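Chain A, query sequence.
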Amino acid sequence: MKTGVYAGSFDPGTKGHMWMIKEGSELFDKLIVAIGTNPGKKPTFSFEERKEMLEKSTRGLSNVIIDEFPNKYLVKYAESVGATHLLRGIRSEKDFESENEMRYINHDINPDISTVFLMPNRELVQTSSSTVKGLIGPEGWENEIQSYLTTPVYNKMLERFDGYFSNWSDLMKSVNAKGDTRAVYDLLKTNYSEPHRDYHNLIHIGNSLNEFEKIKSMLNDPNAVELAIWMHDAIYRTDIIQDNEQLTGNLSSIELTNLSVHNALIKSVDDLILATKHEDQVTDKDTQFMLDIDLAILGAPKNDFDEYEQNIRFEYSQYSDEDYKKGRIEVLNQFLKRKTIFQTEFFKDKYENEARNNLKRSLEMLR
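Chain A, predicted structure.
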């Protein structure tokens, strides 16, 4: 049995790391992804956080194990776990020189453990943890780092570095909010960071805000729609599905009242939140845009939509496959039976055809 060890700090893990892991999982019968823990260094994320991100990112790879690599020689660690190979990545001539030198040293320590080098695709060569962290800070950083990270890692980065907080601050000024607006943001961030959320998290809010910016000028009350985007999934439990919107509306009303937001605006936000049950076609233009934003993922490119479907399944992991399939088929059929999935011309033109193709493909897989 060939066992490989791929070690690194993974602080955070990137798509470059994931490429190495996927390739390694095909090369070896078992691949141990070893997270380095050095008491002399202070990582951005704890070992537990890095382990969680890697476990979520590798859920489809059954022969991959995430482990801790303590402050010792890598080849000694590999020996302790019964590994036959070390897996290393080469991105440049400089990498090759240092890695090749280390290969000889490792061979001197234990000649029975071989080193395998892999070179990532060109688009991944500049993807590194330090590069990603170096992009954080300037306006719009949330969108700039997304392409470098897997979804679980990207969501954790938004949690750690207050993703879209500048958007929230600008919105609070627009609605003349008073009091501790930061505390409400922190409450929302905490809720959207709950461990069972694989889709209804900060990424969903960020993607919705990006869609909102494209149609903001078409709205009668953009503040109400933007507030509803922030609030609409603040409570999301998969065991009380029918009550989520009502409970979220109640929470939103309480928090916005505490911020002295105008009553009429609070009522508008509550109405928009309740509409995200997606039970009826509506005639109010702002509500139509709100609902279309919430469903934009249905018209995403194939890979993104398939990841969304997978993440929804993870969120309902307490249900058996049979029960989940039955419920999911019913939901997807309801959207397909509509004359149009999207209610505004903007989103129909942008997403309708792709959404129907995605839903039909998903239904075929479920059946």
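Residues 3-129 form a domain with the Rossmann fold fold (CATH 3.40.50.620). Residues 207 and 293 are 9 Å apart (CA to CA).
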